[in-house]
Amino acid sequence: xxxxxxxxFGGVLVDWDPRYFYRKIFATEQEVEHFVTEVCNQEWNTxxxxxxxxxxxxxxxxxxxxxxxxxxxxxxxxxxxxxxSEIPESIALKASLRAEGYRLYxxxxxxxxxxxxxxxxFSFMKGxxxxxxSGYERVKxxxxxxxxxxxxxxxxxxxxxxxxxxxxxxxxxxxxxxIHGILFKDAAQxxxxxxxxxxxxxx
Length: 203
Known about the structure:
- By secondary structure, the chain is of the alpha/beta class.
- It has twelve helices and seven strands.
- The protein has helices spanning about 20, 30-40, 40-45, 55-60, 70-75, 80, 90-100, 115-120, 135, 145-155, 170-175, 185-200, and strands at about 5, 15, 85, 105-110, 130-135, 160-165, 180-185.
- Strands 5-4-1-6-7 form a five-stranded parallel β-sheet, with helices on both faces. It has a two-stranded antiparallel sheet with strand order 2-3.
- Helix 4 runs antiparallel to helix 5.
- The protein is elongated and about 60 Å long.
- The N and C termini lie close together (about 10 Å).
């Protein structure tokens, strides 16, 4: 029986994208795309989720791309502009699941420096039964240790727990822990997959 629903945040409940900020900095979409995929890319950004501060990550990157020093250093200043909005359909799904009696949790790769800013902006984060943040734990998905922290801290049984995440490597890691992982594409698909899982478990 499923009792617990765990949400990733970025790409699932929150629309976060550096393009929102860098469209104000670069003249063309092509320049923006080059910068966020080749310079301040996702791989680099994830360094701030557990290993480094933003200042350390920026100092690591500037020597590699000195021609973009100004734009790289603006990453921290523009971070709030990257944090665009809640994803309304996902927030509605979360509310529906709460009304059905599920316990709701968050498991997110997020910098300890910026997570408090997100908490201030998005009230839904305070309405969860618990949250595990990689920046606070100094370990990030898909490392099994962060899933173990979630399970142990909130006394969750993996077979009673569903995890929504938009990265397949995190879903695979959750499943290896015995958690029911559902790859998130949008709220409607996630709800369908959850209902199908529940039907299968009830057979």
